[in-house]
Amino acid sequence: MPAKTKEFGADSALPASDDALGVAVSVRGLRHSYGELSTIERLDLDVPAHGVLGLVGPSGCGKSTLLELIAGLREPTGGEVALGEGLDPAARLARCAFMPQRDLLLPWLSAIDNAALALRNRGVRRGAARREAGQLFERFGLAGFERSSPAELSGGMRQRVAFLRTLVAGKPVLALDEPFASLDAITRAEMQEWLAGALDADPRTVVLVTHDVEEALYLCDRVAVLSARPARIVEEMSAPAPRAADRDEAVTDPEFVALRERALHALRGGTR
pTM of the predicted model, to two decimals? Predict the structure, then answer.
């Protein structure tokens, strides 16, 4: 699998983003509540263009809500969220592709038609959408499975189809909500290594929500640890750089291990 990712960016069929330099994410004084239940309280964060930010925190702290606010799927109670110059929900939706925890592949469509959905939604004809998405199947480790139904794919393959669908939308910001949470440990580790290679080859601005501190530190440039609800940032750290190409080597590096313990300590403190 890692060998395939080395070719990922070559002659890519992906549509160009709306800004060749990427789009930054800016959150200022963000507040959100459901009625009287406060979920996020005066939160500030920045993600530079082509930066990758990981969000970790206890269950129910508001991580997924924060991701939906960034993507324009919800509106804040107070404060501002901007993607580039886009403050309003329509601008955020236009610039951000959201990938939820479940792959949400449509069972009545083939793998290639699921992958091409974002193109079809933009008005691309089915044949052209299939050709464009199909050019990426080999690079995603999916060659030969274009006509397979989702039920015929492994969990890792389904997630790759879902990520391909997210990426071909051509949007400069990716909001990933625990994309590997449902996978077994071995497949999850393989997918983390695969995604790291994919993002190196085709950089996007990424906000990743995960419960896995190790995953966050391996995939992201920076990691923000959130407190229990209402969410606030209790710790922020930069991941080791440069990252080792081999995941096992990266996660056993002494600097990585020390940062993981620091994040876990902050996470434990943030739940009190």
Answer: 0.84
